[in-house]
Amino acid sequence: MNLMITGGAGFIGANLVLHWLRHQPDDLVVNFDALTYAGNLGNLEDVKDLPNYRFFHGDLRNALEISKAFSEHNIEAVIHLAAESHVDRSIHVPADFIETNVTGTFNLLETAREFWGDELSKHRILHVSTDEVYGSLGSSGKFLESTPYAPNSPYSSSKAASDHLVRAWHHTYGMNVVTTNCSNNYGPYQFPEKLLPLLINNCTQNLPIPVYGDGKNIRDWLFVEDHCEALDCVFHEGDTGETYNIGGCNEWSNIDIVRYLCRELDKELNRSGADSCENLITFVKDRPGHDRRYAIDAGKIKNTLNWTPRHTFEEGLTKTIRWYIDHQDWVSNITTGTYRDYYKHQYG
Ligand code: NAD
Ligand code: DAU
Q1: Residue 310, class by beta-carbon neighbours within 10 Å (0-12 exposed, 13-18 middle, 19+ buried)?
Q2: Tally of domains within the chain
Q3: Residue 348 lies in a domain
Q4: What is the reported pLDDT for 348?
């Protein structure tokens, strides 16, 4: 099978490309990526010369480039991850999110429809989305696949719009689609604008750890390799037109996860007392429209496809911390001028 993975140079995409090449060696993987600030081909250095891997430098905002990738590689299926993915950036520059997440998904669906023609139902598109489309929970309950959409940020509303497009292309044109809505991922190759890698990077550099508001917002954390296994499973076994929630059953308030990580980093970096990473914690102005709590009910994917995460939180976190400490060059290569401009704009 010739599989296109969009956004394969980003955090989850790169982990998925590596997973696919390891577990599905008979497939050709075509990584379609625009290489925005979040895309980094360095993530795929180890596989770049494999005969069953190709990189296509293309932008979803340009339908002709998608079309060219389909024809050049005779694309038979797609896993669609490319997106603008950071909530804080969506608050500063919402237009980028509409163009890539909404128009880009539309361009992809239309290109696939044209290219696959009468054989549309034989070719699958797995659309990778987020739990943020469901909005914010109170202190109890979890998101089910049937939870009504109530997105609150420019990011989540653009992802919600893309989910609706995918759903409509299935119902109207018979496109063979599946959608996943996943909770917060963590792990290697995550850009240090997101909470966990930002924290690790700031601790190694002795910089303040910014915690928004009262730090009591809750997220449900999943190790990225477990997410990739879930995507593999849904792609191969999910029912057409269905959606599957993916989560770690692993809720943490931000302040608790930050303190936990600081303690783990103290051990790794031999810090204690006045030098402890915990002393870097700094409460800052809250994110506008900050969702209070996310939690996934992953019962459907567990009961129908037999997927559960393989890593405990402790295992995933230890792997993650070790990876960032061993790959400080990777971090310094991407935290250059543009990152510093963003950081200054966001945190002052
Ligand atoms: P990321 O920001 O790390 O990577 C996004 C990738 O998409 C980058 O390689 C970037 O270059 C590429 N890209 C951006 N705009 C593009 C365009 N116009 N054309 C082609 N490529 C483009 O994102 P991520 O955290 O890896 O998230 C991947 C997907 O998973 C997204 O769709 C996101 O909504 C979803 N998701 C993420 C999480 C999470 O915790 N990170 C959780 C659930 C769902
Ligand atoms: O839930 C899935 C979503 O998880 C994905 O769809 C998004 O692509 C991904 O970015 C992530 O969104 P969040 O907004 O939850 O992740 P982020 O790492 O930005 O923030 C996690 C929590 O930490 C959130 O409550 C905001 C808070 N935070 C974040 C940053 C960057 C801080 O307190 N300080 C910070 O500096």
Answers
A1: exposed
A2: 1
A3: no
A4: 86
